[in-house]
Request: fold
Amino acid sequence: MLRVKTTIAILFAASLCATVPAKAQLIGGNYVKGANLPWLDGHYSYYLGVDPHNPSYGCAYNSGSMNAHFADMHNMGITVVRLWINQSDQGCTIDGSGNTTGVTSLFWTNLDDTVRLAGNNGIKLYLTLNNGRADFLTNGALLNNYINNALKPLIQRYKGDSRIWAIDAMNEIDGVVGGPDGNYGSGPSWSQAQSYIRSIVSAVHSVDPGRLVSCSTGWHTWNNLGYFKGQGLDFYDFHLYNDNGYIPTASSLGMDKPVYVGETGQSTNSWNDSLQNTEMANILSNSNNGYAGIGIWDYDYAGSTDIHTMLYANGSWRPVCNTIKNFTYTGGGSSNLIANGTYTIVNKNSGMALDDPGGSTADSTAINQWSVNGGSNQRWQLTNLGGNVVELINVASGKALDVTGASTTAGALIDQYTWGNNAWQKWNIVSMGSGYYKITSNYSGLALDVASASTTAGASVDQWTWSGNANQLWKFQ
Reply:
């Protein structure tokens, strides 16, 4: 959404209503209470860096203000904040032909500070790359220069950083697509939009395989989600503005990955506390029907006259803020995790399987990474103990995957001990997208890893500090 939003009236079919909550697919195991902060204190395209098209605006970044906003949203129970980073090429350097040639040091300084402040306040950031860059869909050279000189450096800089929640490839990409299922006018085709999405996803995952990527759609609510399937996205994001907070069950949308409502608010164009609050209360309640979360439009700033702002002029909360804070998600769900069952656990980087050498039943048997050959000692029984926490038992030996001595030292050897319901024998499994998972000790917080990412059969498995490396990602098959 920008400062002015076209609202489309939708007729809702009663047949879409569910009588019981649908089982949710959550993102990373957590329901998201989100908010949007598309500009800082009214400064839109120059709050992190200089807008190269309007350099006279300067840069309006204010660390104290950003910190105060994050702290306030944290107090509301907000966990994810979506903000725009390269809108109007903010922070980028461009040549006379519009090609991105780099990123300014001022942009990095301010974005680093923003990430730091978010983390300090218990906030994760959902970074939207741009809004309305139709030329990126039609001009491959322009897109490639942006990817190589701005996007990849961004992803590399924050590789594995848990304070970054996800990347939004473009805000409401259907707004630049021509035709009746786009902007109702002229513009690139959906085929070109899909190519753009795949290019962004590929670039991000090539640098940081575990980084979540989505692309938002808004002009047609959930009706365009079908265009996003099969493009490599890790979850789907649609935007919705109505007065009653209605959304169909997530399962009725027919999507294969979690669905997040990244923007929502009232559609009536008037300041109305009751209307704003009713819409949000209803959509939060309806999100129990299978959604990964809801993101309110928008936090804005004290003194804003936008009808959607969450604050009064004096900075105090409008009623909707307490509604968000007091909402408790009850939809349950699978956390988008694999089901209980027997699996071979394969390392993404080396293609080797997590194994118990010889299928030994002795305590303190070292866990190795062997070539996949169908042996029973390479099969692991997964049992969900609640939330993301699982027990992993080797099928051949009957022993549990464990952390030697419950060590918290990075590089501690992983052993296979007798299952005794000990804390250091429980593992936290979180989907990192594209079918891969991070397996982290529920006791020490360290990630299951392959020492040196060796491809040699029999390579030992260590427990290393999570840093987003490909050798710390695993696939269950």
